[in-house]
Amino acid sequence: MSEPLNQTSGVMNFRDIGAELIDLVNGKDVFTDIHIETDQRVMLKTPNGWIESDTIDILYEEDVDQFLSGIVADWKEKIKESSISKAYDLQFCRLRLNAYHINGSARVAISIRRQPLAPMNILDVGLPQYVRPVLKNAKGLIIVSGQTGSGKTTTLASMIDNINEEQAVHIITIED
C-alpha cells in the first residue's frame, strides 16, 4: 500500500485526482482517451498511439478508491456486478468514464473518453466523399462499425448533425 501524498504534521493530504484529470484535459496534449490502471502510469491515446502521461503520476489503489468514491459512493459493490459508467459535461468537452475490474478482479481500470460538446463538421471527420449523398436518401440503413476508439460515435454525431441541418426527417440510432 502506498502512502498518501504530502503527509505533514500528522495530517494526510490526499491527491485530488479529479482536479489532476481536469488539468490534463484542459492542457495542450492532443488525445482522445485516458486509461488508468491501479499501480500503473496513466496512458493517453494520441493520434500516434498510446503514450504515458507526463503530468499525472502513477495512481495507486488508494488514489483510485478516493476518486471513484467521489463519483459513486458504493462503487466497490456496483463494480462487482458490472462496470460503472458516468458522463460529465465540462465547459469545453464531455467526458465519458467507465470503471471496471481487470486481471480477474485483482485491479481496477478506468477508461475516460474525451468528446467535443458539439459534433464535428462532416467535412472534418474524414469520411469519404460518397457518404454525403447517402445521407440524403429518404430511406435506408447505415451501419457504422469499428474497434473501440476508432471514431464511431464521432462519425455518427457528425452524420446526424448533417442530416438535421439539411432535412426534416426522423432518425433512429441504436448503439451497443
Write out key terms for the chains shown.
elongated, 6 helices, 6-stranded antiparallel sheet, alpha+beta, disordered N terminus
What's the layout of helices and strands?
Blueprint: H1 17-26, E1 33-37, E2 43-46, E3 49-52, H2 61-71, H3 75-81, E4 84-89, E5 93-102, E6 107-116, H4 122-125, H5 131-134, H6 152-166
Antiparallel strand pairs: 1-2, 1-6, 2-3, 4-5, 5-6
Descriptive report:
The chain has 176 residues and is of the alpha+beta class. Helices cover 29% and strands 22% of the residues. Strands 3-2-1-6-5-4 form a six-stranded antiparallel β-sheet. The model is unreliable at 1-9 (pLDDT under 50).
Mean pLDDT: 84
Number of helices: 6
Biggest β-sheet strands, sense, barrel:
6 strands, antiparallel
Q: What are the secondary-structure elements, in order, as H or E? A: HEEEHHEEEHHH
Q: Helices and strands: which structural class?
A: alpha+beta
Question: How large, in whole angstroms, is the Cα Rg?
Answer: 20 Å
Helix percent reads 25-40%
Contiguous low-pLDDT stretches (5 residues minimum) are 1-9
Distance between the termini: 37 Å
